[in-house]
Amino acid sequence: MSEDAILHADLDAFYASVEQRDDPALRGRPVIVGGGVVLAASYEAKARGVQTAMGGRQALRLCPDAIVVGPRMSAYVEASRAVFDVFENTSPLVEGLSIDEAFLDVGGLRRLRGSPEHIAHNLRRDVRREVGLPISVGVAGTKFLAKVASAVSKPDGLLVVPSGGELDFLYPLPIERLWGVGRVTSARLRSRGVRTVADLAALDEDVLARLVGRGAGRHLHAVSHNRDPRQVEVGHRRGSVGAQHSLGRSEPTADDLDAVLLALVDRVCRRLRKGERTARTVTLRLRFDDYTRATRSHTMPAPTDRTDVVVAAARSLLHLARHIIECSGITLLGVAVSGLANGPPQLELPLERVPPRELDGAVDAVRRRFGTSALNRAVQLGRRDPLEVPLLPD
Description:
Elements: E1 6-11, H1 14-22, E2 31-33, E3 40-41, H2 43-46, H3 56-62, E4 67-69, H4 73-90, E5 94-98, E6 101-105, H5 110-113, H6 116-131, E7 135-140, H7 143-153, E8 158-160, H8 166-170, H9 183-190, H10 197-201, H11 205-212, H12 214-224, E9 240-246, H13 254-274, E10 277-288, E11 293-304, H14 307-320, H15 322-328, E12 330-338, E13 341-342, H16 355-370
Parallel strand pairs: 2-4, 7-8
Antiparallel strand pairs: 1-6, 1-7, 2-3, 5-6, 9-12, 10-11, 10-12, 10-13
């Protein structure tokens, strides 16, 4: 292994593993997190064909003896923080990708901590011992290949791609192992006889561009040859902030959707203010009965962290999407903001105190001290808390 050594550490079936850790009766049994839509499935349930984002009824047809549990986001966040503590005790160079995965650069730690493989072995041991969760780790010279290696090693595995053996490992893999090859791209490539990464690497970039588009073709041509110059970015700030709520197949009313929307915007704007950031673009994300998705976006004239401004934009987008919601049957509603900037919003003219921003600050302070459920909107009384759901991928 060269001095360039990157670990990709990825918790296995994270939400379901936390549930099995916390309830011994669930261990070794098929577990589904989420009711109307599968948010996570244990490997016992995955072995029966259950997949994330699958409808709950379909999942139970495939695995009728599955145990269905509701999501506990606070428990997952706590577990994630504990795991990231292990990451940061392993290497000072950690780039978090999501609540349950990260890249670690360990290339300069050989004298201090041993070989990258030894470091990865100890990381897995420490996560299991200190947090009680299984984790898979891939070790390679590039971020792309380390992520592929961790996926191949699952569940609860460790895979090291040796220096000089990168293409020997990569070429036999099916094209679906590559980031960017989804169902449509896979079908298009396979119809041309492209089944493995080796098949893909044999194509000229121009040929790939004609098959999948210029940007995707350039990306796939590069990764099929293991070209990935990206470094582990410490302190990298996300480009968007979002939250979502799974509605199942409950046929929510307009009032139900508005209550969920308000809760999601509250959460997103609170996270913006906590990170001292502002946003310009509001995006509404929708998923329907047939698993199709739609988005609607609005860009505001100036960056903001004000809840009332984002609420107004999100409500307008929801109103514009009402026809497709009525026709298709909505099963998930999400709100995200992007076009993020650092620092507080610019003062407004005339330079006077702005009551909505003062209100936001007061609400944030109450929730920080007494918990997020200490203060809620009247429309959310008696409703299931939409904040106990996973965050949208940023």
